[in-house]
Design brief:
The protein is of the alpha+beta class. It contains 2 helices and 5 strands, in the order βαββββα. Strands 2-5-4 form a 3-stranded mixed beta sheet, with helices on one face.
C-alpha cells in the first residue's frame, strides 16, 4: 500500500473547485487505489498577463529522478518492502 492515495472527485468537480478552464488529455475517473505509474489529474496554474490561468492536466503518478534512464524506476522508488 505504499505510494498510493485516493482520488474521489470527478473531473467536473475538480474543474469547478479550482476554477480550471479545460482538460488536457484523457482524464481518469475516481479511484480508491491510485498506484504509481497510473495517470492522474493535476491542476497547473500560471500567470498570463497578470491573470491567473488554471488548467487540468493529466500526468503519470510517480517519482522519476533526473538521473533515471528509464521511467519504470518511478514505481520502484516509492515502495520499499
Amino acid at each position: 500500500m505504499c505510494g498510493r492515495y485516493v482520488m474521489s472527485k470527478a473531473t467536473s468537480d475538480l474543474l469547478s473547485h479550482f476554477d480550471a478552464k479545460e482538460v488536457e488529455g484523457n482524464p481518469p475517473g475516481p479511484s480508491w487505489n491510485v498506484a504509481p505509474t497510473q495517470n492522474v489529474p493535476i491542476v497547473a496554474e500560471r500567470l498570463d498577463e497578470g491573470a491567473l490561468d488554471r488548467r487540468l492536466l493529466i500526468a503519470k503518478w510517480g517519482l522519476v529522478p533526473s538521473w533515471a534512464k528509464d521511467t519504470k524506476i518511478g514505481s520502484k522508488l516509492l515502495c520499499t518492502n
